[in-house]
Amino acid sequence: MHVITIGIDPHKSSHTAVAVDAAGHQLAQRRFVVNAGTVRQLMRWCEKWPERRFAVEGGKGLGRSLAQQLAAAGEHVVDVPSTLSARARLLATGGDRKTDEADALHVAQVALFRQDLRTVEPEDQSTILRLLTERHDDLVNERTRIINRLHAVLRGLLPGGAPTRLSAEKAAALMKDIRASPPTAAAATSLGISSPICDASTGRSGTTKRRCVTPWPPPAPR
pTM for the complete prediction? Predict the structure, then answer.
């Protein structure tokens, strides 16, 4: 039985999949709305082709999450750079007209006739932890930037400015006693709201990192 290649054009809100045979002829196509069940729906749609492989455009970019989920499920997945699929579209149409179905078809055809594409391997915990750490650092830097801006605003509204170690709760208490023009008060309030949001996001990112390094399932009690 010939292997069926399934090209996928990924987007933030939807993924379009096109299945082609060994000659590159389109067999079927379907659009999937991105949600928690997207991969499950995609796998059900592909059950009719037990001999299959997936070609995901931008496996290191927009298509990374989908490519990783498929690879983790044991599927054969290759990464098709967007430059190659764009070149295939240009040669096929003679222009730059785009549709999601046509793009997915070109992704599959590129994978069919190129033997040098990168095979997507499931990421291990060290890679995931590195990504979570980078995200946590970004949130910490963003929180610091917001606090510094809030200090600058409060310095002009309060005698002596705000305390050095300013938490979201302290900032909210200080702003309750401020009497300022509407634009200035709005700016201070906006910064005060941003701070607890960053606090919460930073806390969630730390929790996620801890979960990543916690063995699963947890060891049974003795």
Answer: 0.58
